[in-house]
Design a protein that fits this description.
Blueprint lengths: L1 E4 L5 H10 L6 H12 L4 E8 L2 E11 L7 E10 L8 H15 L2 E6 L6 H9 L15
Parallel strand pairs: 4-5
Antiparallel strand pairs: 1-2, 2-3, 3-4
Helix pairs in contact: 1-2
Length: 141
Amino acid sequence: MNIRIAKSEDTQAICDLLKQMGYPQPFALIQKKIEILHNDANSQILVAEENGKICGFLSLYFIPQIALEGDFAKICYLCVDENMRSKGVGRLLVHEAERLARQRGCDRMELHSGMQRPLAHQFYLREGYVDAPKYFRKALN
């Protein structure tokens, strides 16, 4: 299993993984978003590849903190192909994201995982993440 930075050629595979997560989007939209994130120094998109096939991806964002020395990193999306789950792919992606965050001087990792994903919650707890239930949001459209 190889973990690497995503390339534009990975767009279709990322689209397919997002669809498995319940986020079916047009190829052009995902292509545009990947290009935007690729050009943002605070963003990384990692892919897990085995035998030339993308079997997972993780979108990571580094967020500066104004009041503290270290910044923090946020896992925005983590998706492993439904045929490759429970085989260590997610763990490899998360560990690489954590390594990159430490390298950038981040003092913590954060993520949001919807209530409809109890298996994902179990995964994050096994990886040492703790439940931080207070979360607020407001739709702007």
